[in-house]
Amino acid sequence: MMTNLFSVFDPSTSVYSLSLNWISTLLGLMIIPSTFWLIPSRNFIMWNSILNTLHKEFKTLIGYKNINKGSTFIFISLFSIIMFNNFLGLFPYIFTSTSHMTMTLSLALPLWLTFMVFGWINNTQHMFAHLVPQGTPPILMPFMVCIETISNMIRPGTLAVRLAANMIAGHLLLTLLGNTGPSLTSSLLSLLLITQIALLMLESAVAIIQSYVFAVLSTLYSSEVN
């Protein structure tokens, strides 16, 4: 039963051992026409306002006063690709790449490694100071160094697991409710339909929130190395 339940997350299309399901990750680059970016429209204005809001938010988190959009572009791009793939997975028969640790860890680990290498090379004294919080008693300093080191090392794992687990949980619940449909009466079937619509709206909110959380935490991690 558990194998059949989790099989909804398995890539099912492959050619010469290459899974074609992962191509859906870049589907947004193919379905968005070039006129979307060139001709001002309602969608363009809405998306541009979202990007400006994210830029102001990430600018505040990074902590620089005079910062251009290029410095926050990587986090805005991270938010965009995660949100798009989260929403894409809500459609029937479309592979959810963000429910796999392969995808989420591939996003979190390189970012974390880059921040760590940059921080330890350019701001070594600042990075050492982060290992001992201000006001720590001298007797607890060795323990705080171990705790802070472990806390720092598990950051990419927590980023990846948080995103994948939230995507898996919602999709499993939708799958469980959908599998009970054929065995229900007509009166209960209407109740099930209302429940699934409400759950789908909740999953849409989760798709936005989790992409925002991933981008914000990545921004906070980058601000700590400066």
Automatic annotation (TrEMBL):
Record keywords, A-Z: ATP synthesis, CF(0), Hydrogen ion transport, Ion transport, Membrane, Mitochondrion, Mitochondrion inner membrane, Transmembrane, Transmembrane helix, Transport
Gene3D superfamilies, sorted: ATP synthase, F0 complex, subunit A (1.20.120.220)
GO molecular function list: proton-transporting ATP synthase activity, rotational mechanism
UniProt xrefs under InterPro entries: ATP_synth_F0_asu, ATP_synth_F0_asu_AS, ATP_synth_F0_asu_bact/mt, F0_ATP_A_sf
Task performed by this protein: Mitochondrial membrane ATP synthase (F(1)F(0) ATP synthase or Complex V) produces ATP from ADP in the presence of a proton gradient across the membrane which is generated by electron transport complexes of the respiratory chain. F-type ATPases consist of two structural domains, F(1) - containing the extramembraneous catalytic core and F(0) - containing the membrane proton channel, linked together by a central stalk and a peripheral stalk. During catalysis, ATP synthesis in the catalytic domain of F(1) is coupled via a rotary mechanism of the central stalk subunits to proton translocation.
Gene: atp6
GO cellular component: mitochondrial inner membrane; proton-transporting ATP synthase complex
Quaternary structure and interacting proteins, as annotated: F-type ATPases have 2 components, CF(1) - the catalytic core - and CF(0) - the membrane proton channel. CF(1) has five subunits: alpha(3), beta(3), gamma(1), delta(1), epsilon(1). CF(0) has three main subunits: a, b and c.
Stretches of the chain forming a coiled coil according to its record: none
Family affiliation: Belongs to the ATPase A chain family.
Entry protein name: ATP synthase subunit a
Any Pfam family the entry gives: ATP-synt_A
Organism whose genome encodes this protein: Diploptera punctata
Protein's membrane topology: Multi-pass membrane protein
Subcellular location: Mitochondrion inner membrane
Membrane-spanning ranges: 20-39, 73-95, 101-121, 159-177, 197-221
